[in-house]
Write a structure and sequence with these properties.
Elements lengths: L2 E6 L3 H11 L4 E8 L9 H4 L10 E3 L3 H7 L4 E4 L5 H13 L3 E4 L7 H4 L1 H13 L3 E4 L10 H6 L5 E12 L5 H6 L6 H10 L8 H12 L5 E10 L4 E2 L4 E2 L4 E12 L2 E11 L5 E9 L2 E4 L5 H11 L1 H5 L4 E3 L17
Parallel strand pairs: 1-2, 1-4, 2-3, 4-5, 5-6, 6-15, 7-12
Antiparallel strand pairs: 7-13, 8-11, 9-10, 11-12, 13-14
Helix pairs in contact: 1-11, 4-6
């Protein structure tokens, strides 16, 4: 029987997840939630700007617990916000409906790092209702943590890990470009970042901590930060005109120290016109150098969420991380157990 799925949050990522779920015969999308007045009460097909209705009305998220119960939802694919303290009430309602959860919330990927008390509460509640909760995505969730951890399986000794992700910010959606501060002055960027009005990337420390846990080590400390990259010539995207001296992207980083030395370093370069690639270098025995030609952000995030469905449905109850599940992969046809 198809698995009954709900999509919670119909922004750019949530809408993409909904479209990909609707394309599969082994997944049955039976409920959808949002808070936007222009979406609530409409057929999901209309919200997705399809030329046909799909027979699912978008409900307000405050009604999620009741709607999930009434539709016998097996798993909720959640995509609303970055920070766990903001989405905590949403997760509680889903858990109480006894539906499993996969969320794109960056801080839920490794919530014990930034929100240890709240993570414990979610873990206890999930176990009480026999529910599994997982935070994942392409990053964090894969490129800066699961992928380098997997590559170390070929090493008998690991001395240092360095992962770089480079992407062309001009190819990303409007909301991505806005939260990365494109076209702002450097002062505006720093002020808005400090206020939390823009975030750029979130999850450097979460990824480093999860990678260290996978390797069985306890780091001395983790530092993370982000700084603006500045345009040296006029640049243009579909949404912003960037003058010389304005922000054209960011350089973000996280560093984990072991025995006083740099052991894990991750770097993100997201800038207009930048070459797209990922590179992971492991100093050890044997040394490993891996490089890609870049991973598409939105579709890869949707893929990670959908592909973890059988893993989560087969996992033990509680709040889990990517390092707690079986080897991640795509699934061609759903098979549980």
């Amino acid at each position: 029987m198809p698995v009954n799925v709900a999509v919670y949050g119909l922004g750019p990522i949530g809408s993409l997840i909904a479209k990909k779920v609707l394309e599969r015969e082994d997944l049955n999308l039976v409920a959808a939630f949002d808070i936007a007045p222009e979406k609530v009460g409409k057929d999901l097909g209309e919200v997705l700007q399809w030329d046909k209705k799909v027979g699912v009305l978008v409900e307000h998220d405050i009604n999620s617990e009741t709607v999930l119960k009434n539709n016998n939802v097996d798993i909720v694919l959640h995509s609303t916000s970055t920070y766990l303290d903001k989405i905590y009430p949403q997760l509680v309602r889903c858990i109480k409906s006894t539906a499993d959860i996969i969320s794109t919330s960056e801080t839920l990927c490794n919530p014990w790092y930034r929100y240890p008390e709240m993570a414990t509460l979610i873990d206890e509640l999930a176990k009480k209702y026999c529910v599994t909760v997982l935070g994942t995505g392409v990053n964090p969730g894969f490129i800066f943590d699961t992928l380098p951890a997997t590559l170390t399986a070929c090493c008998t000794k690991v001395e240092k890990i360095h992962a770089i992700r480079s992407l062309d910010a001009s190819k990303r959606r409007f909301s991505f470009q806005k939260k990365y501060g494109l076209s702002l002055s450097v002062n505006e960027f720093n002020e808005l970042l400090n206020r939390g009005q823009i975030t750029a990337h979130v999850g450097y420390a979460e990824s480093i901590d999860m990678l260290a846990t996978a390797l069985g080590i306890k780091l001395d400390r983790i530092v993370e930060g982000q700084e603006p990259l500045v345009a040296e010539r006029p640049l243009k995207t579909d949404y912003f005109n960037i003058s010389v001296g304005q922000v054209s992207g960011i350089h973000g980083y996280g560093i984990g120290y072991l025995n006083g030395k740099e052991f894990i370093k991750i770097e993100l370069f997201a800038e207009v016109g930048r070459e797209e690639f990922e590179e992971i270098r492991i100093e050890g025995e044997p040394p490993i150098a891996w490089r890609s030609c870049g991973t598409a952000g939105d579709i890869a995030t949707a893929a990670m969420v959908i592909n973890m469905i059988p893993k989560v449905l087969s996992s033990k109850p509680g709040l889990i991380r990517m390092l707690d599940i079986p080897f991640p992969s795509a699934f061609i046809k759903l098979k549980i157990g």
